Amino acid sequence: MMNALALALVLALSLASYSPALAANASESPVMKPLPVGQTFPDLTFTNPVSAKEAQELGAGTGGKPVRVSDIKAQAVIFVVYSMYCPFCQREAPELNKLHSLIKSRGLSGKLKLVGMGAGNSPFEVNVFREKFSSPFPLLADQDFSAYKILGQVGTPYYYILKRQEKDFVIVDSQLGCMTSAEAFLDGVVEKTGVTKGK
């Protein structure tokens, strides 16, 4: 427990102090190696059970069980790597809520899902973030940084835009840093993934 907390604090301090991050509106990692566009997104398993509401949002059963990326029933996914300790992520939270609302209002929620992953965040920390910012979309915990390492130890917030190809998701775009606007961001996602209205 102490080792995980110490690692989280070291990560938060190193990310926040890395100067190029200021230009990107992100906490940047000096060791980041993002997964490239065109690569299959890893079929990560998040071992902490998701709630019934989150499972319904993902189309992944009834809740109370771990979830895998491949369980997400969607043609495309906006996968956001964040940390509750990242000041840019905290600032971005209301814009993410707006993005989620826009997905619904444009009739895309049956085909496009928004999912957040708390890098180094415990289920408790994820829940603190969820409650503080009234996040209406699924937030997954990555307490031991295992998924974070597989995803390239990216800065936060970091966006992977995924498009389903048969059973897997493929990365069609990615971005480090805050959105300029939820509307423009969603327009870009729709263009890159080709999702259209309907179930």
Question: Describe it for me?
Answer:
With 199 residues, this protein is an alpha/beta fold. The protein has one domain: Glutaredoxin (3-Layer(aba) Sandwich), CATH 3.40.30.10. It has seven helices and seven strands; from the N terminus they run H-H-E-H-E-E-H-E-H-E-H-E-E-H. It has helices spanning 2-17, 21-24, 52-58, 87-105, 123-133, 146-150, 182-193, and strands at residues 45-46, 67-68, 76-82, 112-119, 139-142, 158-165, 168-176. The strands form two sheets. Strands 5-4-3-6-7 form a five-stranded mixed β-sheet. The chain has a two-stranded antiparallel ribbon with strand order 1-2. Helix 4 (87-105) packs across helix 7 (182-193). It starts with a helix and ends in a 6-residue tail after the last helix. Mean pLDDT is 88; it is low at 9-23.
Arrangement of strands in the largest sheet: 5-4-3-6-7
The coarse silhouette is: globular
CATH architecture: 3-Layer(aba) Sandwich
> Which class in CATH terms?
Alpha Beta
Examine the coordinates and then state which fold CATH places here, giving the name of the CATH topology. Glutaredoxin
Radius of gyration: 16 Å
**Largest sheet, if any?**
5 strands, mixed
Helix content estimate? 25-40%
Low-confidence stretches: 9-23
Q: What's the number of helices?
A: 7
CATH superfamily: Glutaredoxin
The SSE string, one letter per element, is HHEHEEHEHEHEEH
- Kindly report the average pLDDT value: 88
Note the beta-strand portion. Answer: 15-25%
What separation lies between the terminal Cα atoms?
Answer: 43 Å
